[in-house]
Design brief:
Layout lengths: L18 E6 L6 H16 L2 E2 L2 E2 L1 E7 L3 E7 L7 H18 L8 E6 L2 E6 L3 H6 L8 E3 L6 H7 L1 E3 L12
Antiparallel strand pairs: 1-5, 2-3, 4-5, 6-7, 6-8, 8-9
Length: about 170
């Protein structure tokens, strides 16, 4: 699935500055789980409200490891209670599938067309041993908008937020 273009996976009718949240799972989901998670995410965003107004939202498990949630705020912004609702759904999925979506110390790279996770403190070791290098693609989960998702979610390690924290 990693060879599919990202632009073909996310809705084209959302504004380029639509708000994006990415939740990285501590493990990849199997196909059966992926279908179940996507159904739950669909049910969530079809009923997502902000200040009693429907949110133009979208959510999907991508690459079997990342929940991407998007809200088009062209009409109305997504308020705190709406974000809390989204977080409750993610926390519920964590409990249901025994995963962690909030471990910011795990970094995921695209290695041989597969998502591979490394603890933050082992990235330098992986570089030193030749498992990854400056051109290895990093899943940059700090993107905030649809445009950033399309242009900067998968970036070479040397061009990522992590570049200044490692030696090549």
């Amino acid at each position: 699935m990693l060879t599919i273009e990202l632009k073909d996976l996310i809705p084209s009718d959302f504004a380029s500055d639509s708000k994006v949240w990415i939740f990285q799972s501590s493990r990849a989901f199997i196909e059966k789980e992926e279908k179940e998670v996507n159904e739950q995410l669909f049910q969530f965003y079809k009923q997502w409200l902000s200040h009693n107004v429907p949110v133009k939202g979208w959510a999907k498990l991508l690459y079997r490891q990342f929940i991407v949630v998007m809200a088009d705020e062209t009409g109305d912004t997504v308020g705190g209670c709406s974000i809390d609702g989204m977080t409750r759904v993610i926390k519920s999925l964590e409990r249901q599938y025994d995963v962690n979506f909030f471990d910011r110390m795990m970094i995921t790279f695209l290695v041989k067309n597969k998502a591979e996770m490394l603890p933050f403190n082992q990235v330098q070791y992986a570089i030193d041993k030749g498992f990854i290098d400056k051109d290895t693609l990093l899943f940059n989960n700090v993107v905030n908008t649809k445009n950033e998702l399309l242009d900067n979610w998968l970036v070479p390690l040397s061009k990522s937020w992590m570049a200044g924290r490692v030696n090549f």
